[in-house]
Amino acid sequence: MPKDTSSPTSTPPPLIQGWCPGAWQPMASGDGLVVRVRPRLGRLSAKQALLLADLAERFGTGLLELTSRANVQLRGVSPSQHPTVLQALADSGLLDADARQERLRNLIVDPLWHADDQVWKLAHALQEALVRTENLDALPAKFGFSISSGRHAGLAQVAADVRLVRTEASTWLIHPEGHDRALAAPHRAHATASALALARWCATQALARRERGEHPGRLSTLLRGWHAAHREWPALAVPAGVRWVPMPGGAGEIPAPGWVPGLGLLIGAPLGRVSAPALARLAHEQPNALRVTPWRMLLAESITPQAAESAGLWDARHWISSPADARLRVSACTGAPGCSQALGPTQSLALHLAGQVPPHAHLHVSGCAKGCARQQAATITLRAQGQGSGTSPIFEVISNGSARGVAEAAWDERALRDNPGLLFEEN
After folding, report:
1. Rg of the Cα trace of the chain?
2. What is the pLDDT of residue 422?
3. Can you give the pLDDT at residue 372?
4. CB 290 within 8 A of CB 283
5. Which domain holds residue 378?
6. Confidence of residue 217 (pLDDT cuts 50, 70, 90)
7. Would you state the torsion angle of the CA atoms of residues 329, 335, 337, 342, taken in this order, to the nearest 10 degrees?
8. CA–CA separation, 285 vs 303, rounded Å?
9. DSSP SS3 for 289
10. Residue 105 burial (CB count, 10 A)
């Protein structure tokens, strides 16, 4: 699929005309525009996956990024071709014609859902209800939900304002992030209504704060402030029988690549980056849907071992198929020169150091202090600080912290590459 060199259209396609500012605004980066695609309820058909591969090859850098929000990003899109890309996405069902709907359907669905666990049905019901519900326009930016089967802890570190968790008793817990209390709902309809009640309450509070000239805040902050002022939780318009209960604790690891009984094959991508030809090859051999995960992996639904081999999924250059692969223990943002805010390159360094990261540890390499690719703490975080006295970039070392943490030391990239084992020996 050669890069498209034809002249772009001089006017935006009809779908794009008249959209309000901010709807599907791309992010400018060092290698062009970044277009973020949010597949509906985290699933891509084979046809949609082929389209994304084609768009990345023709209009982007030829790479697609799997993000920690279960999105897919195309990089390097030129401003003149951006409307053409958006129109193609809309035609394939990957973009809403309504800007409000696109903003509100910020749901992360447990990629390991089964047909009998109600996760998919609840997610679909909530997505439809969000579009129909009024008085949500004042919600804070990026307000979102996660819906978990409760079988694993893979969504525990994925940011969400409201978490809906299925329990072993087949009930639901609707959990505002950052609190030790949750709403207990006996079935799916009550869970959907309770999640919407929290969203409406948050929107009302955020609107009042804006009218006072204050920052709208997040749901967790608003609930904490309400409880401090009133010594009780707010009275929400929830169905009868729904009540506040203690939120049980729990910990665990995210699922690892491999066969998932009854579902298919969970396959990772090095640093979450998939080449367009590799994705196209998979889509050609995979007639069923692909589920996009927040772990920078894809789940190939019901794929057979023969199809997986034909799709090249055992090719380590493009995919991670083993839970022992050291590249699962590293992460990195785009870094320089792809990101204009990055103070140094990141990805090649992360892959170079991957083999030195012990099991159950994690290394994150960030181009700046924003930590876009990983918000939570890592065993070691390397934060780029620009060039040193020579030509080698300097990286600050943060132990058990994020890119925003306090550094304990600084190494230049050449020293890190020459002595890769020292970084974790000292920690």
Report:
1. 22
2. 83
3. 87
4. yes
5. 330-425
6. very high
7. -160
8. 9
9. coil
10. 19
Q: Tell the burial category of 72 from Cβ atoms under 10 Å away from its Cβ (0-12, 13-18, 19+).
A: buried
Per cent of the chain over pLDDT 70 is 92
230 and 347 assigned to the same domain: no
Which amino acid does the sequence have at 184? A
Q: Are residues 163 and 223 in the same domain?
A: yes
Listing DSSP states for 225-258 in one string gives: HHHHHHSS-------TT-EEEEPP----PPPPSE
The length of the chain in residues reads 427
CA distance 113 to 290: 13
Helix (H/G/I), strand (E/B), else coil: 63: strand
Q: What pTM value is reported for the model?
A: 0.90
Q: Which of 326, 343, 360 delimits the end of a domain?
A: 326
Q: What is the mean pLDDT of residues 399-418?
A: 94
Looking at the structure, tell me whether residues 238 and 120 fall in a common domain. Answer: yes
pLDDT value, residue 251: 62
Pairing of strands 145-148, 363-366: unpaired
Average pLDDT rounded to a whole number, residues 118-132: 95
- Look at residues 192, 214, 246 and tell me which one is the last residue of a structural domain: 246
Provide the greatest CA pair distance for the chain.
Answer: 68
Contact 70, 16 (CB under 8 A): no
Mean pLDDT value across residues 226-239: 92
